């Protein structure tokens, strides 16, 4: 039963990754269909992320009242509604309407399942879990690319919704598995500390800034990688441009897969440092003034690979750094901070690139990678001082 439940949790994270990469990979075609400027993708992304922030901040309260299995089931249903709604959208404004369930579904899953795993499993399991998020995020840009070759962008959302619906059915069938672990789950979900208490803990605000920086860079890659290739490389087909949206997700998946095997030996902090160094190398490769698309493609894969262990490692450290009774509130705050970055910074980049050109993307990513590393190193120093 334990192994079956863990398999279901991995499947849940595939479902979490599926919707995240569709907008970026489909946007070059969507903007043409709606007749709007390229930067308007940022407003849609911002709306989705804003709803996710609300969902993440409400998670500690929901975890006190509901079991993780119910939070997950309802949340996946909301994302199915959002995906189907996007697929039937015929005007740009309709995307904002369906961004509500689209975003609400993601935040609650992320916070509740991450807290459960951080308290009950090793860093290796946490990295493998987020690797499966990457599996979902890699699948959907290729679904969109297939839809653009065979039909329209709308079908990319609709076909992804069907996969999401199948995962929802598996979760419903698996509800008795959660019951076998009811006591452990209830123990791990007692969010004794609230948001106000958790935010005053030494080092928490620094990790929130680090999470903001990390997700600012990650979400910018999610949304604008395909557009970067469309704007800087010549001779690429529409389908190829859409498929490049999977580069960052493929890198994330690879980074987390490797981390799953080495995290228990290296530890979370060392893993984060190595990851950010690899990310910086990838950014420098993308900066190279080469007209061929291959070096940039390799660069984005390295960026994703380096980013891979950062997110799960920070969250896995939460119970150790801030205590188990504070972990649910701290992780929810981290999620909210992360989604603030996801909400606003891709939109900021959208407006910047409209005036300065899409070629500024690697420089934009560099700022957040350095900020992320700096805030995490400062966090470690604060925590060491507290212990010593």
Structural features, described:
The protein has a single domain (2-387), classed as MFS general substrate transporter like domains (Growth Hormone, Chain: A, Up-down Bundle), CATH 1.20.1250. The model is unreliable at 187-191 (pLDDT under 50). The protein has 18 helices and no strands. The protein is globular and about 55 Å long. With 388 residues, it is mostly helical. The relative contact order is 0.16.
Q: What characteristics describe this protein?
A:
388 residues, mainly alpha, Growth Hormone, Chain: A, 18 helices, 86% helix, globular
Label the CATH architecture: Up-down Bundle
CATH topology: Growth Hormone, Chain: A
Tell me the Rg in angstroms: 20 Å
Integer count of domains: 1
Number of contiguous helices: 18
Q: Note the run of SSEs as H and E.
A: HHHHHHHHHHHHHHHHHH
Mean pLDDT: 82
Estimate what percentage of residues fall within beta strands.
Answer: under 5%
Helix/strand structural class: mainly alpha
Share of helix among residues?
over 70%
| Gross morphology | globular
Question: In terms of per-residue confidence, which ranges show pLDDT below 50 for 5 or more consecutive residues?
Answer: 187-191
User: At the first level of CATH, what is the class?
Assistant: Mainly Alpha
Largest sheet: none
- The termini sit apart by 42 Å
- Count the beta strands: 0
- Identify the CATH homologous superfamily: MFS general substrate transporter like domains
């Amino acid at each position: 039963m334990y192994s079956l439940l863990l398999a279901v949790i991995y499947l849940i994270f595939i479902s979490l990754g599926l919707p995240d990469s569709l907008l970026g990979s489909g946007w070059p075609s969507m903007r043409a269909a709606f007749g709007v400027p390229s930067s308007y993708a940022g407003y849609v992304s911002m709306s989705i992320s804003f709803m996710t922030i609300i969902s993440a901040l409400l998670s500690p309260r929901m975890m006190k009242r509901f079991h993780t299995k119910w939070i997950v089931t309802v949340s996946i249903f909301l994302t199915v509604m959002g995906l189907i709604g996007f697929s039937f959208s015929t005007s740009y404004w309709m995307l904002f309407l369906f961004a509500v369930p689209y975003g609400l579904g993601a935040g609650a899953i992320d916070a509740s399942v991450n807290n459960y795993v951080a308290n009950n499993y090793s860093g290796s399991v946490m990295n493998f879990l987020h690797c499966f998020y990457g599996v979902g995020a890699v699948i959907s840009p290729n679904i969109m690319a297939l839809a653009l070759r065979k039909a329209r962008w709308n079908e990319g959302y609709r076909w992804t919704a069907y996969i999401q619906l199948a995962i929802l059915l598996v979760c419903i069938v698996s509800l008795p598995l959660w019951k076998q672990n009811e006591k452990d789950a209830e123990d791990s979900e007692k969010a004794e500390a609230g948001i106000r208490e958790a935010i005053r803990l030494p080092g928490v605000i620094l990790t929130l800034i680090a999470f903001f920086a990390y997700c600012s860079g990650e979400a910018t890659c999610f949304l604008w990688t395909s557009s970067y290739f469309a704007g800087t490389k010549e001779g690429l087909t529409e389908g190829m441009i859409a498929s490049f949206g999977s580069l960052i997700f493929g890198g994330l998946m690879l980074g987390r897969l490797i981390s799953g095997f080495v995290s228990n030996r290296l530890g979370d902090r060392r893993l984060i440092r190595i990851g950010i160094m690899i990310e910086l190398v990838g950014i420098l490769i993308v900066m190279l003034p080469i007209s061929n698309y291959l070096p940039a493609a390799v660069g984005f894969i390295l960026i994703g690979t380096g980013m891979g262990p950062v997110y799960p490692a920070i969250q896995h450290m939460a119970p150790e750094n801030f205590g188990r009774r504070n972990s649910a509130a701290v992780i929810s705050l981290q999620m909210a901070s992360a989604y603030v970055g996801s909400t606003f910074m891709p939109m900021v980049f959208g407006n910047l690139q409209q005036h300065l050109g899409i070629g500024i993307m690697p420089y934009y990513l560099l700022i957040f990678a350095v900020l992320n590393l700096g805030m995490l190193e400062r966090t470690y120093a604060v925590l060491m001082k507290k212990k010593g």
